[in-house]
């Protein structure tokens, strides 16, 4: 029996996945490659790639670096809170 070690089926996994998608969208909008993002963040391309594939989750320091490199607030990577009527 194989154990699924991902968090994709949990709320935490969905948040992690949505953060990666938001980073990808912003990178695409700016036409920025993972190599360029790695250069601007001071990380290796392999380090960025592991986060972009979900192999390793982004941590707060990573997101601060990525936000700075993309010139967006860290909050841009998180879904807007739902408003309750």
Main sheet record: none
Number of beta strands: 0
Terminal Cα span: 45 Å
Tally of separate helices: 4
Q: Stretches where pLDDT falls below 50 for ≥5 residues?
A: 1-10
Structural class: mainly alpha
Average of per-residue pLDDT values: 87
Structural summary, described in words:
The chain is globular, with a radius of gyration of 14 Å. Helix 2 crosses helix 3. It is an all-alpha fold and 85 residues long. It contains four helices and no strands. The termini are far apart. The N terminus is likely disordered. 11% of the residues are buried.
Q: Would you spell out the secondary-structure blueprint of this structure?
A:
Blueprint: H1 11-29, H2 34-41, H3 45-52, H4 60-70
Helix pairs in contact: 2-3
Please describe the structure with a list of short key phrases separated by commas or semicolons.
85 residues; disordered N terminus; mainly alpha
Quick description:
The protein is mainly α and 85 residues long. The protein contains 4 helices and no strands. The relative contact order is 0.16.
């Amino acid at each position: 029996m194989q154990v699924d070690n991902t968090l994709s089926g949990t709320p935490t996994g969905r948040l992690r996945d949505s953060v990666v998608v938001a980073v990808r969208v912003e990178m695409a909008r700016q036409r920025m490659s993972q190599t360029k993002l790695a250069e601007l963040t001071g990380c290796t391309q392999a380090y960025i790639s592991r986060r972009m594939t979900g192999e390793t989750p982004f941590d707060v320091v990573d997101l601060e670096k990525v936000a700075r490199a993309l010139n967006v607030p860290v909050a841009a990577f998180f879904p807007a809170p739902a408003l309750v009527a």
